[in-house]
Amino acid sequence: MTSLLRIELRKLLPYSTFWVLLLLQCSLVFIFFYARGHILINGKMAGAELYQFPKLWMHLTYISSFLNLIPGILMIILVSDEYTFRTLRQQVIDGFSRATLVQSKYTVILLLAFLLAAYVLMLGLGFGLYYGENTAGTAVFTDAQYVFYYLVQLVGYMTFAMLVAFLVRKTGLGIMVFMAYTLVIERLIHWQTPDAIDKYFPMKVLGALTPSPHAEMEQLMLGITDVLTPLQALAPVVLYITLFCFLSYQLLRSRDL
After folding, report:
1. Does the pLDDT value for residue 107 go beyond 60?
2. Rounded to whole angstroms, how far apart are CA atoms 6 and 63?
3. pLDDT of 3-24, one tens digit each?
4. Burial (CB count within 10 angstroms: exposed 0-12, middle 13-18, buried 19+), residue 189
5. Residue 133's closest CA among 22, 243, 49?
6. CA 85, CA 4: separation in Å to the nearest integer?
7. Mind giving me the DSSP string for 8-64?
8. Are 213 and 63 in contact (CB under 8 A)?
9. What total number of domains does the chain contain?
10. Average pLDDT for the chain
11. Is residue 233 within 8 Å of 208, Cβ to Cβ?
């Protein structure tokens, strides 16, 4: 695993697109969370509630989840570039198995997920300790498990993006397919599917890991009663991640490079 990560880092560190998208992700998370907390409602800053522990963690991960398309797009670019520059073929010639190639991309996914989750954790601590009123140790880390759920969610999005990239092999088309499924196609399917079934669809299960802080009220207004909690969504997400990696391997194994 260490050698695989070292090889991937040699490709990533000089790659300007990687740094641009990573910086964009981090900047937008900060801007969105800061802007949402500084909206005035009845003359009072919304951050008075938003930046308080322990509710801060649910608010922050919920806002961060709206930007999961960016690391997904980054994974599509990284995988499709391997086809464009024929580095996958060269690695196979050099003796790497196709399973190892998928594993190497998965190490990149884990690295990115840990980096972004650590950034969200640091951001939450910064906002909470600066603006928050209750900064006692027990309050600060209560509900911090939402950062872990966010990490798993990132892994899920990026492994799905990796599967799309191995399927399509073209950057532009891969991004279009990824965005079309996550933003449109699955939501259209939801309208025709009972809640008891559609709650297990990939994007809905991933979304359940970082629920809206006002989810209970929204569900009551919409008449939705059958939803997964983050803890209940964890096992299906792990199964989806495993499935996406397996299908990526099968695609790589069954096609010419």
Report:
1. yes
2. 32
3. 777 888 898 999 999 999 999 9
4. middle
5. 49
6. 19
7. HHHHHTT-HHHHHHHHHHHHHHHHHHHHHHT-EETTEETHHHHTSTTHHHHHHHHHH
8. no
9. 1
10. 89
11. yes
Closest CA to 205 of 171, 183, 178, 231: 231
Q: Please, which residues bridge with residue 44 across strands?
A: 41
DSSP codes joined into one string, 134-185: ---HHHHHTTTHHHHHHHHHHHHHHHHHHHHHHHH--HHHHHHHHHHIIIII
Give the CA angle between residues 156, 211, 109 to the nearest 5°: 20
Question: What is the Cα gyration radius of the chain?
Answer: 20
Return the structure tokens found at 234.
Answer: 């964890």
Is 44 in a helix, a strand, or coil? strand
Secondary structure of residue 40 in the 3-state scheme: strand
User: Partners of 111 in the beta sheet?
Assistant: none
pTM, full prediction: 0.93
Structural domain for 126, as ranges: 2-254
CA dihedral 72, 73, 75, 81 (to 10 degrees): 170
